[in-house]
Structures are given as structure tokens and as C-alpha cells.
Specification:
elongated, 75% helix, 3-stranded antiparallel β-sheet, mainly alpha, 15 helices, single chain
Length: 401
């Protein structure tokens, strides 16, 4: 969700801006950790948050942010100052939105604003996680290294998203085509045969009677069924955007067979990568947990990370609170414990993220291998039933004639 805030910063200046967070409580915690004294914090409706003109402006893709991070790191390492580097990258980009954003960031830096502070004014392009990591890099004097680490992090996230999308593409296309073909048969082709059978008045096999009944129902009530399905889908989407609906759907998705484990692995991998990146950048653990909570896409995992953060503040560490929550898998809990003992939490969680990514990939491939033959069998059964019903009715009519 997007939130608009009005607050005092660390210099006691009144500032206003926008930020993305899972809920209002997470947004307030993140602002407090960044040194803001919040005066007003309001959620923005997704329907009216964007202006009419922004609806037609090109979005900045994740791949463009990754390339920008690597190029900016390279320019800074070569001794180019930040403003000049931003102007060079601004001239190279073909995305109008990104070009305008980089120009605005460069102007703010000329006015005395830091790079992370200037980027924080553009939450739709640079996520809160992005400019917070850059802020840590600015304070630590290793901005180039942080930019490269951020590019690697975003690149892994982008690859995971592409794999999930490609995994869902084939089954979705096959399902849509199958539904269209069967719908055309039921609405336009089969009614012709059913009228012929009624005119002949012959005794028909059971399979043909069932097919005629289904065809009559589709012809008479198909529009209403389709309308009901559309309303159901729209209603589910609208309900899923409410806090209770999002929570219920995310909980059900985690418990779903096959796909539930994939979602859990993907979210835990994302959380591990986020914690590893921020720990390497030098951020304090309480703030790291808040950022990890905001970065996750599943409400259940995010809630669990928020609870771990609260217990971390009370001095219970990370591995202990994680071990009391089933959403965190044993390997992650054990590796976090090792990281806490050795002080290499970033390395251990990077290993966890890599392992979970590999397991998720294997499970995605396995799911595709199961879905493809299953859908083929289902479609084959439906087509075979229609063919048997038509052929058996023809033999029955020939026999009776």
C-alpha cells in the first residue's frame, strides 16, 4: 500500500512525502526508525493515487533500475561525481519517466540533498528499500559497493519473478484455449445435433442424454453462468485488496498443495536476500527486519517477520523467535543461528536464499511436469466423452431406423 505522510525530520524541518509499506503500522515504524516524527500518515487509494496523466506515462521496469545501478557504480568508481554521472545516465535512457526522475534527482542533489534523500522523493521508481540501502552506503563511504550489491539483489528478484511468470504461462494458455474450444462446441455446434435428435424421436444412449442436458443448460443459462463467474472473479479481486481479504488469501495460498510450498520458498528467499543485503550494508537489525517485512509479498510471512522484529527488540535475537513460528523452515532457522554466533549473518542468509531458489525452481519444474499431462488428460476425457456421445447416438439411430 502507498501512504502519504507529514512529519518532522531529524533537523526539525517539516517534510511531506509518500512511501510504500504493507500496512499503516509498518509505515509508522519505518518512518520512526529513519528519524521522522510523524504528524500525519494516511493510506492512499490505488484507484485515485495516480493522476490521470501518469496513467499514460511509461513505467520504469526493474531491468532499467538494475542497469542504472551497475552503470552508476561504474561511473562513481571511475571518479565521476554523482551529478555528472546522473546526467550521463539520463541522456542514455529511453524511458521518459526515468529520464525525468533522474533529472529531478540531479537537481535535488545540486540543492544540497543527498542521493538517497533525492531518490526517496520518487517511491514509484526507487523503492524505500533501494534508497535506504543507498543511505547506509553514503554513511559508510562504500556507495559503489552498495550499488553493485543492490543490482545483484534486484537481478535475483527479477529472475525469480520471470521464472514464476513463465511457469504459469503455459498452463494458463492451455486452460483458456480449452475453455474457449469447449464453449464453442457447447454453444454453437452441439445444439444442431440435439435439435436433430429431438426431431427423429429415437431412444438415445445415456451419454448422449447427458450431453444434451449439458448443452441445453449451457444454451439457456450460459450467459448467466459466465456473468456469475465474472462477478465472482471481480468480487474476489476487490475483497483480496482489503486487509482481511489479503490475509485470508495469502494464508490459503501457503496451505495450497504444490504451489503453497513454492510461494513459501520464494518469500523466504526474498526475506533472506533482503536481510543479507541490509546487514552487509550496515543497517541495524531492527530496521532490517522492518524492511524485510515490507519487501515480502505474503501477508503471513510479513506478519511473522514483524513479530520476530518485536521480540528482537526485547533482546531475544532472531533465530529463537523464528523457531517458534512454523512459517520459517528449519534450515533458515539453523543458518540464522549460525550467522548470529559467527557474526556472518549476511553470508549464511545468502546461502539460504540460494538454496531456497534452487528448491523453488525444482518444484516449479515438477509442477509444470505434472500440470501439462494432467490438463491433457482432462481435455482428452472431455473431448472423448463428446465424441462417444455423438458416435453412439448415430449407431443407435441407425439401429432403430
Amino acid at each position: 500500500m502507498n501512504f502519504a505522510y507529514v512529519a518532522y525530520n531529524q533537523e526539525r524541518k517539516l517534510v511531506q512525502g509518500k512511501m510504500a509499506a504493507m500496512d499503516k503500522e509498518s509505515a509508522a515504524k519505518l518512518l520512526a526508525h529513519n528519524g521522522f516524527q510523524v504528524l500525519s500518515l494516511k493510506a492512499q487509494s490505488k484507484l485515485f493515487a495516480a493522476s490521470g496523466s501518469s496513467m499514460f506515462t511509461p513505467k520504469v521496469k526493474l531491468g532499467e533500475i538494475i542497469l542504472f545501478s551497475r552503470q552508476l557504480a561504474l561511473l562513481l568508481e571511475s571518479g565521476t561525481d554523482i551529478v555528472t554521472a546522473l546526467e550521463l545516465l539520463q541522456d542514455q535512457t529511453t524511458n521518459k519517466t526515468f529520464r525525468g526522475t533522474l533529472g529531478a534527482v540531479a537537481n535535488d542533489i545540486r540543492g544540497g540533498t543527498s542521493l538517497s534523500g533525492a531518490m526517496s522523493k520518487h517511491p514509484k521508481v526507487f523503492s524505500p528499500l533501494f534508497h535506504r540501502v543507498l543511505s547506509a552506503g553514503e554513511q559508510g563511504g562504500n556507495l559503489e559497493t552498495v550499488l553493485r550489491n543492490m543490482a545483484d539483489f534486484l537481478s535475483r528478484m527479477n529472475e525469480t519473478q520471470k521464472k514464476l511468470k513463465s511457469a504459469m504461462t503455459y498452463p494458463t494458455v492451455v486452460a483458456v484455449v480449452a475453455v474457449l474450444v469447449i464453449s464453442i462446441l457447447m454453444i454453437f455446434v452441439l445444439p444442431t445435433f440435439t435439435d436433430l435428435y429431438r426431431q427423429l424421436g429415437t431412444e438415445l444412449p445415456t451419454a448422449t442424454k447427458v450431453l444434451i442436458a449439458v448443452t441445453d443448460f449451457s444454451t439457456s443459462y450460459g450467459v448467466f453462468v459466465l456473468g456469475g463467474l465474472v462477478l465472482g472473479i471481480v468480487g474476489t479481486i476487490a475483497w483480496g485488496r482489503t486487509p482481511k481479504g489479503r490475509y485470508a488469501i495469502d494464508k490459503a495460498m501457503l496451505k495450497a498443495p504444490v504451489i503453497g510450498r513454492i510461494i513459501q520458498l520464494s518469500d523466504l528467499s526474498r526475506a533472506s536476500q533482503t536481510i543479507s543485503l541490509l546487514f552487509k550494508a550496515g543497517l541495524p537489525l531492527p530496521e532490517i527486519m522492518i524492511q524485510a517485512q515490507n519487501a515480502t509479498s505474503n501477508k503471513i510471512v510479513g506478519e511473522a517477520l514483524g513479530e520476530v522484529q518485536q521480540e528482537l527488540i526485547r533482546g531475544e535475537g532472531i533465530s529463537g523467535p523464528m523457531s517458534r513460528r512454523k512459517v520459517f523452515l528449519p534450515m533458515m532457522v539453523q543458518m540464522v543461528g549460525v550467522g548470529e554466533e559467527t557474526g556472518k549473518l549476511d553470508d549464511t542468509l545468502a546461502t539460504v536464499a540460494h538454496t531456497y531458489d534452487m528448491e523453488a525452481d525444482d518444484r516449479i519444474k515438477g509442477a509444470i511436469d505434472l500440470v501439462q499431462p494432467a490438463m491433457t488428460v482432462i481435455i482428452g476425457i472431455i473431448v472423448a466423452f463428446i465424441a462417444v456421445a455423438l458416435v453412439s447416438s448415430m449407431y443407435s439411430m441407425y439401429g432403430q431406423l
